[in-house]
Inverse folding.
């Protein structure tokens, strides 16, 4: 038995669970739409062992678990497994934690030396018949989508040179290519960024490296039909600080943000850097597209400071979420010769976990969805997740002038990030599938998967599936249709 600190990172909804299970024939209320046939994969961080040192970032170092919610002919099953990373296996063999602070190997126990530190806990990525579990500090792990057995660290058949790979990949809807990057590509505190493209068959066909203006936490990026954008916000790493046992990340309110822009199939020597505002931060990006008039429109969940309390603390900052200037921001990037700055317009409310239909990736789009806080909610949000508060309202944003739709939850309920399931019916906007948590007491929670008509949020869920297991907050998910699964390698 391992005893976890009784802090917000390890109590309430964040209580470690660590149970592997297979549950069949879950109770369904309502009717599962015929379109929802396939598997909702979810990445769930869950620490197998208590930390041996104080570290606010440890919540991001929790072992990756892969959750599979499977929909087949109106029935639903659920499975959960640890990703058998080298790190998890080493700690299981030792019977206690071996790895110290978030992204600081200089704080590890001697037995951890040389063991890959990544925990594969952020995003399940499906591409070319393979399921990868990604985290930005290392290479992904490949997992069997049917058995959830871990197949090992994945380097695209020995081709990937980068030591790191983003958890936020982008798939071109026309070519089926997977676009990825890795920052700190050759080690701690490095400014080296890798940019690599995997063809629709899963072959890594090109990898290039370039330097960022400074070493920054690059969580996400965007593509358009012809360009790739590398946004850089001033949450920075200093290798000397890390070597001295300090924090990997400090947010610098005085440093500029940047966006590197280059033709998607171009050479990194063609990169143009655009200067953005100082001190801003973004984890998740909605989309980017070309407007046909020489601009790239880049839409992101932006705020005036890094949202993670542990990074604010390491930076001597303490800015409450409601004071952090959160907004859905559109950065207009002028491709004309000589232009080097960015214009911002606000196109939506504060929030996070923005999603769009996969077929609009990098293209003009009319709508998307995101999570936010209900401004009219009575009572506090459910405490949980790495930021400390869970979202309680789902939005459908419309960029064609239609009103925003909202599905607020009752008090003491919260959303995890939804996935979008397209419909086979033309003109139908598809469905959203998401985990909803309900808090019944300080340590009592119930969990349901909700299926919501994506263009009719106000109707509420068309189906709810009971999950008779405690669920920890998920990071990201990925929908894989039954047809895609049938083609698994
Ligand atoms: C994030 C999550 C991470 C991480 C870095 O959501 C950034 C942002 C779950 O791990 O390591
Ligand atoms: Fe993310």
């Amino acid at each position: 038995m391992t005893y976890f600190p009784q802090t917000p990172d390890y109590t309430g909804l964040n209580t470690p669970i660590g149970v592997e299970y297979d549950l069949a024939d879950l109770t369904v209320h309502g009717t599962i739409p015929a379109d929802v046939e396939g598997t909702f994969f979810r990445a769930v961080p869950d620490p197998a062992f208590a930390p041996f040192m104080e570290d606010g970032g440890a919540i991001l170092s929790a072992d990756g678990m892969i959750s599979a919610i499977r929909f087949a002919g109106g029935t639903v099953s659920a499975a959960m497994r640890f990703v058998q990373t080298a790190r998890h296996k080493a700690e299981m063999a030792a019977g206690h934690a071996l790895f110290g602070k978030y992204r600081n190997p200089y704080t590890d126990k001697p037995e951890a030396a040389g063991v890959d530190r990544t925990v594969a806990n952020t995003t399940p990525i499906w591409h070319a018949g393979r399921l990868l579990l990604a985290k930005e500090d290392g290479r992904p792990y490949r997992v069997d989508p049917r058995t959830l057995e871990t197949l090992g660290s994945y380097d695209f058949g020995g081709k990937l040179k980068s030591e790191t790979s983003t958890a936020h990949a982008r798939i071109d809807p026309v070519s089926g290519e997977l676009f990825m990057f890795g920052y700190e590509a050759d080690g701690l505190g490095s400014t080296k960024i890798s940019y690599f493209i995997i063809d629709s068959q899963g072959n890594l066909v090109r990898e290039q490296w370039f330097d960022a203006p400074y070493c920054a936490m690059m969580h996400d990026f965007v593509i358009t039909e012809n360009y790739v954008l590398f946004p850089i916000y001033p949450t920075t790493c200093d290798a000397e600080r890390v070597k001295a046992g300090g924090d990997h990340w400090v947010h610098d309110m005085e440093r500029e943000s940047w966006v590197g822009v280059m033709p998607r199939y171009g050479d990194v020597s063609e990169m143009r850097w655009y200067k953005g505002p100082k001190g801003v931060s973004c984890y998740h990006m909605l989309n980017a597209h070309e407007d046909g008039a020489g601009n790239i429109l880049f839409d992101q969940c932006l705020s005036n400071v890094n949202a993670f309390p542990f990074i604010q603390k390491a930076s001597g900052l303490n800015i409450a979420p409601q004071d952090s200037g959160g907004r859905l921001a559109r950065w207009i990037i002028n491709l004309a010769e000589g232009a080097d700055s960015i214009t911002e317009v606000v196109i939506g409310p504060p929030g996070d976990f923005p999603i769009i239909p996969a077929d609009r990736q990098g293209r003009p789009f009319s709508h998307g969805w995101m999570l936010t806080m209900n401004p009219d909610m009575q009572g506090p949000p459910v405490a949980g997740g790495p930021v400390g508060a869970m979202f309680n309202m789902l939005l459908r944003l419309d960029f064609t002038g239609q009103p925003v739709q909202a599905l607020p939850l009752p008090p003491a309920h919260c959303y995890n990030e939804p996935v979008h399931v397209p419909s086979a019916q033309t003109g139908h906007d598809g469905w959203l599938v998401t985990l909803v948590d309900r808090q019944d007491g300080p340590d009592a929670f119930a969990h349901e998967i909700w299926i919501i008509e994506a263009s009719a949020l106000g109707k509420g869920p068309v189906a709810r599936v009971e999950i008779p297991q405690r669920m920890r907050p998920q990071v990201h998910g990925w929908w894989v249709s039954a047809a895609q699964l049938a083609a698994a390698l």
